[in-house]
Amino acid sequence: MDQISNHGLLKKIVHGTGAQACNRQCLIPPHISQIYDELFVIHQKLQRESSAQQEYALQLQKRERCLTEQETLFFQHEAALAKIRGVEEEVHTKIAAIKEQHEAEVKQLTEALREITKENRRLKSSYDSLRDVNDSLRKQLSDVTELNKKLEGQARKAKARLENLQRKHEFSKVWKSNDLCQVMKEGKPVKQEKVMAKSRTATLPLNSQVYELLTYLMDWISDQHLSKIKTQEESHKPRVTQSSKNFCTQEKCMKLLPIAAEQLQWMPYVNPKLHVSVIKFIYWSIRQLDTDTQHTAMRSTMRRLGEDIFKGIVSKGNPQSSSEQPTETKSKSAAFFKSFCMPLRFLSTLIVLKTVKQVDYLAQAFESLRADLKTDEGKALFLEYQCVPVVLSHLKVSSTSLLSRALDGLLQMTMESGKCSLQPFLEACSNESFFQTCSVLLRSSKLDIAVLEKLCVILQKLSRIKGNKKLFEMFGLHRMFQELRRTVDPGHTFLCINLNSILLNLEFLTSNSLDSSLSTSH
Question: Which residues of 57-81 are buried (b: 16+ CB within 10 A; e: fewer)?
Answer without folding.
Answer: eeeeeeeeeeeeeeeeeeeeeeeee
